[in-house]
Amino acid sequence: MNAAARVRREKVRIQAATMFEESRSTAQIASELRVSEKSVRDWRKKWTAGGTAALASAGPGGSDCKLAADQQKQLAVMLDDGPVVHGWDDARWTLARVVELIERRFGVCYTLRGVSYLLHRLGYSQQVPTRRAIERDPEAIASWHRRRWPSVRG
């Protein structure tokens, strides 16, 4: 969830606090704010224990990254160098290879899913390689398209 969404949700909770002060029912608050009654009950419990301040946003969720900022930069450089430089025999990064690279270089253990989140956070995306024959001849393909394709197409 981004910062703007967190702020919107916090505003809704603050509105609920105002309604709690007016002794409105859970069902009425849920209907008016378009949230579940369970959320309203949870908010009311927090509000009763700590007031409106207890409904403030706790900040972004999730755990902190296991790699420091400089380690993340080093990892990005290593990934850009390619897997062959780091001992693999083909030019494909897999999550398992990135896990192994991080563990070897930084001594930090990640799960495959954790590495997937980390790579996304660093700006990398999953790419599926296009399968092309090594013997591919672009000139022969272009010639076929010029000469043969019109008769095939009809």
UniProtKB/TrEMBL annotation:
Domain of life: Bacteria
Listed transmembrane segments: none
Stored InterPro entries: Homeodomain-like_sf (IPR009057), Winged_HTH_dom (IPR025959)
Domain Winged helix-turn helix: start-end pairs: 89-146
Signal peptide: none
Designated name of the protein: Winged helix-turn helix domain-containing protein
